[in-house]
């Protein structure tokens, strides 16, 4: 229980620290952009402006959450080490694992706050322009939260192994590759090359396959999703996230802070 309280304390401090920064100003600019695009859609399109509002809103949700996750994740631990604030923390009766878990929890709360605010704005515009309630909308928002959390863990792990710049670049490559890998496996070019197909299959095991939890395209094209797919996506994301957290804890525990 004592360690749990320490995790909560670190998480609360992290949340307040980031909340005071300018990282959430993106909500204002993205919200303004959403309103402008929706207005233009209503004036110059004769289709479904609600569909355009949902398309732009979901895209803004995904990109902003991933951007914030990378921005915060790269400084999750490396920033504390460089500023030497981590020395004051770990010198106290606080385990390294508690410190890391608290930091991860606090930054995830910021991600959830950002996504919730943009989601409310997106859904408000969507419903005001005639959109209908779809359960897949809420599943998509949930998977965007999970996706951003996984990106946060990936960039945090990489920041412990390499420089900040390289960890950002690698995280972006892993993110876009994780979405493209599924489509690449379905191409004739890949299917006619067993070695390449094996490499792509191995990617699904070694690196995060974000395409497995992507329901945005299904939502925008009004496709149905069965419960098995959703449960499988949840199971995969939680399992892989736990794996990433375990790696971060192991590496930070053995990291020389001197």
Report on the architecture of this protein.
It is a single chain. This protein is mostly helical. 80% of the residues lie in helices and 0% in strands. The protein has helices at 2-19, 26-44, 49-73, 78-82, 85-90, 96-128, 135-161, 164-186, 188-191, 194-206, 216-220, 227-254. Helix 3 packs antiparallel against helix 6 (96-128). It is globular, with a radius of gyration of 20 Å. The two termini are 30 Å apart.
Q: How many H/I helical runs?
A: 12
Termini separation (Å)?
30 Å
Main β sheet profile: none
Instruction: Give the overall form.
Output: globular
Coarse structural class: mainly alpha
Give the total of beta strands.
0
Rg, Å, rounded: 20 Å
Average pLDDT score: 79
Name the helix and strand elements from N-terminus to C-terminus, one letter apiece. Answer: HHHHHHHHHHHH
Count the domains.
1
Low-confidence stretches: none
The fraction of residues assigned to DSSP E strands is under 5%
Helix content: over 70%
Quickly describe the structure.
By secondary structure, the chain is an all-alpha fold.
Task: Write out key terms for the chains shown.
12 helices
Fold topology:
Layout: H1 2-19, H2 26-44, H3 49-73, H4 78-82, H5 85-90, H6 96-128, H7 135-161, H8 164-186, H9 188-191, H10 194-206, H11 216-220, H12 227-254
């Amino acid at each position: 229980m004592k360690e749990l309280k320490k995790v909560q304390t670190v998480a609360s401090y992290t949340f307040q620290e980031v909340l005071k920064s300018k990282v959430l100003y993106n909500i204002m600019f993205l919200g303004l952009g959403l309103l402008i695009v929706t207005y233009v859609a209503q004036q110059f399109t004769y289709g479904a402006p609600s569909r355009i509002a949902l398309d732009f809103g979901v895209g803004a949700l995904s990109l902003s959450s991933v951007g914030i996750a990378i921005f915060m994740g790269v400084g999750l631990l490396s920033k504390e080490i460089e500023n030497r604030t981590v020395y004051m923390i770990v010198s106290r009766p606080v385990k390294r694992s508690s410190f890391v878990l608290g930091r991860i929890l606090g930054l995830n709360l910021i991600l959830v706050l950002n996504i919730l605010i943009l989601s409310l704005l997106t859904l408000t515009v969507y419903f005001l322009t005639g959109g209908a309630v779809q359960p897949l909308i809420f599943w998509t928002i949930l998977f965007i939260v999970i996706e951003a959390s996984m990106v946060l863990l990936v960039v945090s792990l990489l920041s412990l192994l390499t420089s900040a710049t390289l960890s950002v670049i690698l995280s972006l490559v892993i993110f876009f590759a994780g979405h493209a890998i599924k489509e690449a496996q379905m191409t004739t070019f890949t299917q006619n090359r067993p070695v390449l197909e094996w490499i792509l299959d191995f990617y699904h095991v070694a690196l995060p396959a974000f395409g497995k939890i992507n329901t945005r395209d299904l939502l925008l094209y009004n496709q149905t999703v069965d419960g098995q797919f959703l449960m499988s996506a949840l199971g995969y994301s939680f399992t892989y996230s736990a794996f990433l957290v375990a790696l971060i804890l192991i590496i930070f525990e053995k990291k020389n802070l001197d």
